[in-house]
Amino acid sequence: MAEIDLQKIVSHCKEYGFVFPSSEIYDNLGAVYDYGPFGVELKNAIKEYWWKSMVQMHENIVGIDASIFMHPTTWKASGHVDSFSDPLIDNKDSKKRYRADVLLEEKIDKLKEKGEKEIAKKNLSQATEEEKAKASRDYAKALTLEAAYIKAAEAADFKRYKELIEEYEIVCEVSGSKNWTDVRQFNLMFNTQLGSVSEESNTIYLRPETAQGIFVNFLNVQKTARMKVPFGIAQIGKAFRNEIVARQFIFRMREFEQMEMQFFVRPGSELEWFAKWKETRMKWHLALGTAQENLRFHVHEKLAHYANAAEDIQFRFPIGFKELEGIHSRTDFDLTEHQKYSSKKLQYFDAELNQNYVPYVVETSIGLDRMFLRVMSESLKEEVLENGETRTVLSLPPALSPIKVAVLPLVKKDGLPEKAREIIDNLKFIGRTFYEEKDSIGKRYRRMDAIGTPYCITVDHQTLEDNTVTIRERDTMQQDRIAIADIERIVGTKVDMNNLLRKALA
Length: 506
What we know:
Blueprint: H1 6-15, E1 19-21, E2 33-35, H2 37-56, E3 61-63, H3 72-77, H4 80-83, E4 85-90, E5 97-99, H5 100-121, H6 129-135, H7 137-154, H8 158-167, E6 184-187, E7 190-194, E8 202-206, H9 211-216, H10 218-224, E9 231-240, E10 255-265, H11 270-286, E11 295-299, E12 309-317, E13 320-331, H12 333-342, E14 348-350, E15 355-357, E16 360-367, H13 368-379, E17 380-384, E18 390-394, E19 405-409, H14 416-427, E20 433-435, H15 441-451, E21 455-459, H16 461-466, E22 468-473, E23 479-483, H17 484-495, H18 497-504
Parallel strand pairs: 3-9, 19-20, 19-21
Antiparallel strand pairs: 1-2, 4-5, 4-6, 7-8, 9-10, 10-16, 11-12, 12-13, 13-16, 14-15, 17-18, 21-22, 22-23
Helix pairs in contact: 2-13, 2-18, 5-7, 5-8, 6-7, 7-8, 11-18
């Protein structure tokens, strides 16, 4: 099986109608993408899987759809106006811009990976960090760099960032040189004007995250939905960041979509809930059939100022292990700050304790676009068949597949197209269907494999005689003869979203 790199995924997405560069006829707009006919179906299926598992399966979690535009003071209270920025560094030779913190984190990861290989050869995989450092020079260097990086980050010492980049000989991937500029801060907020006349308008922001819409509606939701702590508020929505180093396809974009849930708990119980949501979210990912070795937790050594615990679920993308989902214990920071800036009490009366308090918050937040890329990354395969031919197949979980079933008349005559259309009309209730009559049946099978369609139904002359069809399964390519009356049951059972939900909650 051929290895799939990021470029192959990008090419496949464009060729088969999953993702297009935005404004392509005008030579594109950087780090902005449009989802095509099959991409939007896959994206909506991922949303459905997340929403049902989060809201439908938990009676103490409800949904919200907050506005993109919010009062400017919202972002003052949240800290985004004053401190939402990235440390950037330029290579003087290539003119390529990088995030300085990412360069350092990637160097740490590379050194650890190199060290782990050496450690594995010595049968010391279960050793302590100290033992690993003694066994591998690279691992020791990684720990030293990590400690220095964390110290610099906590002090916001960007001069030290550059010193570490130079000390550890980090080079530009384009020029190969170590000729770096100083590190500078770059604000990520998008601002615009609200008002009919620009001179009279007020500056507002496109939200850089969706969480604040949940926090400012905390009391509205709690009272109207009659929620008792612990409870959660879930949301799927667009966010915007002025990413200056956006790259790696849809991994990092200026306009992106988040799926997140803020879970409100009693003060003092937040770390217990943090552990529970870590376990719950990992199960959700594993239910998709992902190998355990392709997922891992990454502990944040440097915590955000509002957090007392934070971990990422990382996935092994073609570009290496990268963040997929964040789980944070945000303490009571957000509600307390909004309470202070708005002069409105954002407290909960706990009848069991007979007291008012500002709830603590445990957050789970996953990037929908990154989730899309993760699903494409692990599903796209190039297989060499027994006859020596190669087929490209998108082995998506059937519940997520853009097209659930394709109905293909063997030829474009003799009443076969009409019979195929009749079958399609009866299958539309189980999900998106596809009809195609162009090209040989083999070529049509290959196209459906590349789109990720779990089943193909072939209508032939025998169908007109006995109401049977050939059903072909995508992953095994096995073909069987079945009655038309059985298609809905067989396909419907396979593509049912409940299959994933049961696995995720097992």
